[in-house]
Protein backbone atom coordinates (compact mmCIF):
# COMPACT_ATOMS: atom_id res chain seq x y z
CA UNK A 1 0.00 0.00 0.00
CA UNK A 2 1.48 3.39 -0.91
CA UNK A 3 2.13 5.88 1.85
CA UNK A 4 -0.67 8.38 2.34
CA UNK A 5 0.13 11.93 1.31
CA UNK A 6 0.13 13.95 4.56
CA UNK A 7 -0.58 17.16 2.63
CA UNK A 8 -3.74 15.80 1.01
CA UNK A 9 -6.71 16.50 3.28
CA UNK A 10 -8.90 13.44 3.89
CA UNK A 11 -12.06 13.17 5.99
CA UNK A 12 -11.56 11.64 9.42
CA UNK A 13 -13.85 8.86 10.58
CA UNK A 14 -13.90 8.52 14.35
CA UNK A 15 -17.49 7.54 15.04
CA UNK A 16 -18.10 3.77 14.93
CA UNK A 17 -21.43 4.31 13.13
CA UNK A 18 -19.82 6.45 10.41
CA UNK A 19 -16.99 3.97 10.10
CA UNK A 20 -19.46 1.07 9.76
CA UNK A 21 -21.36 2.92 7.01
CA UNK A 22 -18.14 3.60 5.11
CA UNK A 23 -17.11 -0.06 5.41
CA UNK A 24 -20.50 -1.22 4.11
CA UNK A 25 -20.22 1.10 1.13
CA UNK A 26 -16.68 -0.02 0.33
CA UNK A 27 -17.43 -3.74 0.69
CA UNK A 28 -19.79 -3.56 -2.28
CA UNK A 29 -17.01 -2.22 -4.53
CA UNK A 30 -14.10 -4.30 -3.25
CA UNK A 31 -13.25 -7.84 -4.26
CA UNK A 32 -11.38 -8.72 -1.05
CA UNK A 33 -10.85 -7.60 2.52
CA UNK A 34 -7.40 -6.28 1.59
CA UNK A 35 -8.98 -4.09 -1.07
CA UNK A 36 -11.48 -2.75 1.49
CA UNK A 37 -8.57 -1.82 3.79
CA UNK A 38 -6.71 -0.15 0.92
CA UNK A 39 -9.70 1.89 -0.27
CA UNK A 40 -10.60 2.89 3.27
CA UNK A 41 -7.12 4.10 4.21
CA UNK A 42 -6.63 5.92 0.92
CA UNK A 43 -9.95 7.74 1.23
CA UNK A 44 -10.23 8.44 4.97
CA UNK A 45 -8.12 8.97 8.05
CA UNK A 46 -9.26 6.23 10.45
CA UNK A 47 -8.35 4.48 13.68
CA UNK A 48 -7.08 1.14 12.41
CA UNK A 49 -7.95 -0.64 15.66
CA UNK A 50 -11.56 0.53 15.33
CA UNK A 51 -11.66 -0.74 11.75
CA UNK A 52 -10.22 -4.11 12.79
CA UNK A 53 -12.92 -4.42 15.46
CA UNK A 54 -15.65 -3.89 12.83
CA UNK A 55 -14.19 -6.09 10.11
CA UNK A 56 -14.91 -9.80 10.33
CA UNK A 57 -11.90 -11.92 11.19
CA UNK A 58 -10.64 -14.07 8.37
CA UNK A 59 -10.39 -17.57 9.74
CA UNK A 60 -8.22 -20.10 7.95
CA UNK A 61 -10.03 -22.93 6.23
CA UNK A 62 -10.27 -25.86 8.70
CA UNK A 63 -8.37 -29.00 7.92
CA UNK A 64 -10.54 -31.96 8.81
CA UNK A 65 -8.99 -35.15 10.09
CA UNK A 66 -9.66 -38.30 8.14
CA UNK A 67 -12.22 -40.51 9.81
CA UNK A 68 -11.06 -43.81 11.26
CA UNK A 69 -12.58 -47.03 10.00
TrEMBL record:
It comes from the Bacteria. This is Uncharacterized protein. It comes from Methylobacterium symbioticum.
